[in-house]
Amino acid sequence: MNLVLAGMNHRTAPVEVRERMHVQESTLVQALKDLMGYDGILEGMIVSTCNRVEVVANADDKDDAATAIRQFLSGYHRCDLREYESYFYWHRQRDAVRHLFRVASSLDSMILGEPQILGQMKRAFLTAQAAGTLNGTLHDVINQALAVGRRVRRETALGTAAVSVPYAAVELAKKIFGNLAGKTIFVIGAGKMSELATKHLLSSGAGAILVTNRTYQKAVQLAHAFRGTAIQFDQIFEYIDQADIIISSTGAPHFIITKNRAERMIAARRNRPIFFVDISVPRDVDPSVNDLDAAFVYDIDDLQGVVEANIKQRQREAAWAEEIVEQEVQRMMRHFASREVVPTIMALEEKLKRIRQGEMERFQGRLTSLTPEQRETVEALTQGILNKILHGPITELKSGAGSPEHRALVQVIRKIFGVAE
Question: Would you say the pTM of this structure is higher than 0.85?
């Protein structure tokens, strides 16, 4: 095994550098085939997203995979890679395995615990498989990385708490209504935050959407994007009591929804709950509306407080996720090391078997007088001695698999027993 990973991400490189090193999905298969054309490269995979570009390869033990990766990147991007060297990180062997497991577990993401990277890594894996560039050790590592990512999501709450303001609004709405199925959304102001909150609400099951904006055409555009209905700004209060969830994000210098307005809305709704997401500064909803029994008002500070608390929760969960990753790295390295000692074990067994057979043949003349039962006893005796001699070295080889001194142990045992590489 000769694993090498080269990469850059949102922490090590600005977006303009990541763009320069980006590998387009349309050219990914050809890029993989180009990578395989360099000396010694046995397997390869490329992960290229908006936040990271990583090339990982498994090479022949005698070859320098890092040089091959540099040559590939320089050739693919037609640049002098020395200009970008400071933005790259390099991982080898165990560190490469650990990095891949952490990436799949979303421990290396810009937003800790985000779920997209696992899907992106799976697509990269399937593309490399289809291109024929994963067929051995690296295939097993990536396959296990995906399994580790799924285990982290299954056994921790790393990705469950909302860590963006729009998504925090959705989580709060779920707590208030229990189920968002069929709920009506009224959007006041067609800004980006309103759009994101609306998108999250709709994906969580909310139904109809009404949109208003001082510039009516912007309301029409946002409503069209979500198959909703645009409302003229001066007609807000003719429709607003139909809404279960109101998202407000305008530049108004005064409250758009006062306490008196909210009281009339709640009365028209026969005291059914209404949820206000006020993400404007200055605020669009009078804070005193929250005093009404059926009204729930959350402003940008409330939502940000939820986000910060959830980030801390994710960080606590990340500690357990890191332990899972380390357990899985150790297991994988033991697995590879145990596979690597198999040839040594087989060579040991073969060497001692030949010695035993040679000695049996050498004393064959003296054994002719033995009965079949006595001959079986001699066979069993010599085989038993052989097994006891092998027991110690084989036990040490298997139990030491994955330890830092393992390779030296293999070499010592081969030297003692005269077994060639």
Answer: no
